[in-house]
Design goal:
The strands form 3 sheets. The chain has a 5-stranded antiparallel beta sheet, sandwiched between helices. The chain has 13 helices and 10 strands. Helices cover 45% and strands 12% of the residues. It has a single domain, classed as Beta-lactamase, CATH 3.40.710. Bound molecules: glutamine. Glutamine binds next to loops. The site of glutamine (GLN) has 11 residues, from loops.
Length: 308
Amino acid sequence: MTDYQKVIDRIYHTVGPMWPQAKPADYIPALAQADPSSYGIAINTLGGDTFSVGDSHVPFSIQSISKVFTFAMVARHLGDRIWESVGREPSGNPFNSLVQLEYEHGRPRNPFINAGALVVTDRLIDLYPRPKEAILDFVRSLSGNPDIYFDTAIARSERATANRNMALAYLMKSFGNIHNDVETLIDVYCSQCAISMSCVDLARSFLFLANRGVNPLAPGGPERILTPSQAKRLGAVMLTCGFYDESGDFAFRVGLPGKSGVGGGIAAYMPGNLAIAVWCPGLNSYGNSLLGIETLERFTTDIGNSIF
Ligand code: GLN
């Protein structure tokens, strides 16, 4: 049996101190205040064990990791119909790029670049009369933590600087791929990105993906969130698109489906086995946590296991 605690302790104590500190995101002003020395790791296994080290209980801004949750909420209602409005190919472009949208007629490449996530959130607004409350309910239930909240200062800060996301939404609306008022959409999107969760919360919330779509820890007993086929598809899109134009390199180095956010978090999972979350706010040029990727690469290397 792998001693996961030993593995993450070793990574935390050897890699953490020697790794060069990178700069947190600052295009959303409130994110720039994150302490670049924060570092946490948490694991939840399907066998019911949890392991953690460092700042693993400290809530941080999950940003684009929220795109996995909103996608799951919409996919469970729309099924395959979601793929009419959003593709499932890597974009090869930065997460907030506008260029492909014009010549691809307002249909985003995938649900994890901002354009795709905006379409998904737009559908979520169609489906749920109180979308923000529904998103919070969903992550609270997946994580088993009723205290998860929106960090309103971060949401406000992003809302005040959301020109690019507004441009993406208006461009897609001109093609008929956004149904709702753009102001409302951006408000819900900035709130979902500003959800505060810890590594422990995130690892637990990703367990349903490791478990073929069933949340094993739901309060009333195991709860199906997605069908096995939907869970497979979501995992495939995370593997190919979860790290924007660094997705190929993440698959190469780590070998797990996962999703990053510009708050410095990464959540990933090993099907049939475990979910793992890492947080360190310093980012690389792709907007992914520098130490987070290094940690996960060492993790799968040390345990000698990945999806490959
Ligand atoms: N809220 C961020 C944005 O829209 C999310 C980006 C990210 O985490 N990659 O710019």
